[in-house]
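Re: that chain you flagged

S.,

Sorry for the slow reply, it's been a week of failed gels. I finally had a moment to sit down with the sequence you sent. For the record, here it is as I used it:
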Amino acid sequence: MERQSSALHAHALDVRAGDCWILQQLDVRLHAGRWTSVVGPNGAGKSTLLRALAGLLPLHGQVTLLDRAWETWGMAERARALAWLGQGERASDDLCAYDLVMLGRLPYQGWFGSPDAQDRAAVENALRATQSWDWRSRALAELSGGERQRVLLARALAVQSQVLLLDEPLAHLDPPHQADLLQVLRALVQQGRTVVSVLHEISFALQADQMLVMAQGRVLHQGACADSATHQALVQVFENRLAIHALAGQWVALPCTPA
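Prediction finished late last night. Pasting the structure tokens below so you have them in one place:
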């Protein structure tokens, strides 16, 4: 069987905060060209894992990006290969939406560069993909929480990276725009890109290709979202408080009361 290339691989990964170990000896391989959702109860280490994979935390262990050791990447080169959207990410209220999204193009412009036609096209495409083009000239302070989130998503999309890490990307979005974003993510994967998203909305997480189920700083299960073993792991990690059902050709998670 042909070996699948890795978008990200963490080996013997440890992350601690003070005297507390948040991640412990994780070994995670995320295949390229797939959408992987990361789920688990509060405090499982999901956001910490994404921040570690994005190079935003001091860590012990080895991380490779696109089958290359992390330390072999230059900063600008890495910023073009991997885009990041953090949970509850903040930005200056004075910035207009267009200028914020243009920040995603900085890795292509150099220290004293200015946007070119390719940069402007990438920004417009990202704003249109998140249905934010109409308020491109408005300051962030004038936007609602959902509108601001869509602009932040557009900034990550504008990087046009091979790997996209998203921590709670559906926060503040209403259901139609949540569904729209999932279609955008699916389209990226169809183009050969890799998406890794932390999601609390389990039914949406089940629409990914692969799922990581986490608890207490460890990966309890990794498998296809359609596999019964993945469904069993979900039920167990949430203490039998949800059930997985097939509905209209999709898997959905419904809350339930344990017997």
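What I noticed first: The chain has a mean pLDDT of 92.

Talk soon,
D.
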